[in-house]
Design a protein that fits this description.
Structural class: mainly alpha
Largest sheet: none
Shape: elongated
Order of helices and strands: HHH
Helix content: over 70%
Number of helices: 3
Radius of gyration: 16 Å
Length: 63
């Protein structure tokens, strides 16, 4: 987990961050599923961004 994950989880579950943390610590299935989705999505976003950054673009850059 990373900084801000409880805040993001709380927004996903539409509850306050402390309640989200407690649900996760209790093993609540909905909270666990949402946190897994959050982590997987973040890792994919980071990988996709890095891959895109390292692949030269064929399109001209506009400034």
């Amino acid at each position: 987990m990373r900084y801000g994950d409880y805040a993001t989880l709380s927004r996903m579950l539409e509850i306050n961050p402390e309640a989200a943390k407690m649900r996760l610590l209790r093993g609540d299935a909905k909270a666990m599923e949402a946190m897994q989705l959050l982590i997987e999505s973040r890792e994919k976003l980071i990988k996709d961004y890095i891959d895109r950054k390292e692949t030269p673009s064929l399109e001209p850059h506009h400034r």
